[in-house]
Amino acid sequence: MRRLIVFSFAISILVPACGAGERSLLNASFDISRELFQAYNPVFVAHWRAEGGSPLTINQSHAGSSKQARAVIDGLEADVVTFNQVTDVDAIAARGLIAATWRGRLPHNSVPFTSTIVFLTRQGNPKAVHDWDDLVKPGISVVVPSPKTSGNGRYGYLAAYSFARKKFGGDDLKAREFVTALFRNVPVFDTGGRGASTSFIQRKIGDVLVTFEAEVLLTLKEYGAGEFQQVTPSSSIVADMPVAVVDRVANRRGTVKEATAYLEYLFSEAGQELAAKHHYRPSLGSIARKYAERFPTLELISVDQAFGGWENAQKAHFADGGSFDQVLAAIRTR
Question: Using CB atoms within 10 A of its CB, is residue 108 exposed (0-12), middle (13-18) or buried (19+)?
Fold first, then answer.
């Protein structure tokens, strides 16, 4: 059964009714993680109850990762956040809502699974898209979420930029010209990854969708091989999916134990199995090897390797006046 993709910029919150004495958690997550947590939540609750935990309801909130970070800062009562880039967690930590030491509280720097950026084309790949070079050609329409509001979009931008910088021998000016040519081919900027999927799949905008591998594989699973196909570029970027307890909220609501257990279980074999089955690359070696055939091999570059970490990448590329703003200005003045 195909999923219904709702084209909306609003935060979506699923709130089942809680019984008397029942606790609840709110997980604020990025927008394409819906299917993963719809599967994970009942599995965790069953585990929690089997371990002697009290009745527990898990509620979900979904939007672009950076929009979710802003919502939590502005008062969204999330007990946990499950985002797709560390700067969104750090932004909340900078406001004192999450401990500054959050990365060290769970395995793998609090990243239970990763993804990367790949392409989805229409069946037959009519525009012959094979690598990042093909996205800058005249006459091709590229769908990608906005790097201003979406971690998905930021990863796509950085993956293209790192490809170009390597292609041009480390020349940042030529790399920026390359991504300017690419983003000149973007007809509309959706605020999140699921909105971009909606534009490409349902609204039939564009020749190629640039998005998380997990979203591409989910689309192929649900729509079959008759409408779309995956294209894996020669290189891309490692997309970390960090998680954290929102300490101030969990302490106030008395849900620290439940919230911590909820995130810890993501690193268990059961949690990692679910992540792999929902097309995320697991961090647990045994599960990663078990599902290795699901994930194409390509050159993967980390944000730390290519850009000196997210703090540097944010300042150089996505802060006001950064390279992405310069790209937009060049596009608008042409």
Answer: middle
